[in-house]
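Dear colleague,

As promised, here are the two records you asked about, laid out in our usual form so they can be pasted straight into your sheet.

NAME FIELD: protein one
SEQUENCE, THEN STRUCTURE:
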Amino acid sequence: MTTLGWLLILAPVALGGFAFVGYPAVLWVWSRFKAPVTLPPEPDTWPQITVLIVAYNEERRLRRTIEHALATDYPADRIHVLVVSDASTDGTDRLVLEYGDARVKLLRMPERGGKPAGENAAGPMLTGDIVVSIDASILIPRGSLKPLVQALLDPEVGLASGRDISVGDEALEGNSAESSYVGLEMQLRALETRVHSIVGASGCFYANRRHLQEVQLPTGLARDFAAASVARAHGYRAVSVDAATCLVPRTPTLKAELRRKSRTMSRGLATLLYLRALLNPFKYGSYAFMMVSHKLLRWLLFPSLLGWLIGPLLLIDVAPQTLVLTAIMLIGLALAHLVSRWPDGRRVPRLIAAPGYVFISIVAGWLAWWQLLTNQRQSMWEPTQRPTVDPTPAA
């Protein structure tokens, strides 16, 4: 029992230490032996592209998103926008039909099927050889679209992911800690790109070769995660493009962040299970190593943290001081409960906002694993409710 107690306590330390410290350090050293990543030269004629937006009841935000996509410096005659309405019940369909620009098209799903179903159905209406997928809630700066497409001019690249910039009004929200996490994630993708290939794209803004986009995937998966592996399985690299930024409004409350993270991780775990063949290092080499390190070990950390609740109880006679870990977990869970019920529109104090975000993430991970192990089908896709005001980048 003593050995089991120590294993339960040390497992989260080992998993978390490698996933968040060891793995980035390995990538950094590894990347020093690789040449810096550069974009191919700009073409004389830019390729035709389709900007794909799957939307459900996005009447309030969709016009602004379309306007920003069409206002980039990408040649106006080479860009098309396809909005897939997931059987919206508000004015989303009417907004697209009455937009007044022949480049903007609508595909209405006959019934709600979720975002992956809409992405699967889009194939026959795509124009050009490159598909840029964006969320209805994000904004694309004027100079961000060209670098994303430019990366795909390299014949070895099958997918190019943008760089998320988490933005919002910190005076009105309780989730400012999300910006730090997003920033670290973008740095990690930059290192993976230099080593070889990222293992997951930004769901908010990424570009795919059309024949890869048209690969049909089960509707319970996260295509942004799966798309990088689809590219790798077809012999391509997937890369992150620092110059291709997009502004992503933070979820305004930690309560909303709990729902978003549990939903995202649940789909991510299902996707990882579906893609398990790519975890074979003998066939996929560095990509398999990065999949295990970036995804599997990070997600295994969440159930392993249950060990801090149980392990110290097994060691109470030989190492009673370990009970401090149980106390930390219990206090953290109480804090997660507190911030998840924080009144909307009131800022969470900085003293508890960051640890609240950490423990909200832990609870979300537990929920995701529970759904996977109990074979619970993910509920119908609901877009993350992000702010609709024009955001400004966080400091």
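NAME FIELD: protein two
SEQUENCE, THEN STRUCTURE:
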Amino acid sequence: MVQKTTEHEKVPTESEVETANHFFKKGFNFYQEKKYAEAVTCYDKVIKLVPTHHSAWFNKANGLAQLCKYEEALTCYNVAIKLYPSNGSFWNNKGIVHILQKKYSEADVCFEESIRLDPSDEIAQKYKTLLGKKQWVEEFV
């Protein structure tokens, strides 16, 4: 019996990895230039070649968040978290998007998870503390 390989299980060729690395760097440069749509396009190419590239999913989410495409960003953060669940940055950025959507309890859950993963995570602690201050939240959004 032949077992089917899912897209996430496919092992990329050396050529695909090289091409993915090229587009990842290009996407990073576009993001630094605040060309978020172009960055997202590059990260899509990386993901097509290497679907398990958690940093590409994370960076794509960041680009989408900059474009105010919050639901799409959250979807990408969720994939990045599934691929690398112990990365607190993924949880923190997801929490920030929830704040931007005024979903404060969801944001709090994200910061709690980041703190659970790393109790010394100063970013998560800062946002969790600030989230409790209603005035700050209203100014943030």
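A couple of things worth noting about protein two: The helical segments are 14-32, 36-49, 54-66, 70-83, 88-100, 104-117, 122-131, 134-140. DSSP finds eight helices and no strands in the chain.

Best,
R.
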